[in-house]
Design brief:
mainly alpha
Length: 31
């Protein structure tokens, strides 16, 4: 979880797949 957020911060332009993966994880934890 933390690693994904770190990777997004490091990259200037995160890919759509990475953004979606983080959003999906957030949705899972929210439920």
């Amino acid at each position: 979880m933390v690693q994904l957020y770190t990777n997004l911060k490091v990259k200037m332009c995160p890919s759509i797949e990475e953004v979606n993966s983080v959003v999906n994880l957030a949705d899972v934890h929210a439920n």
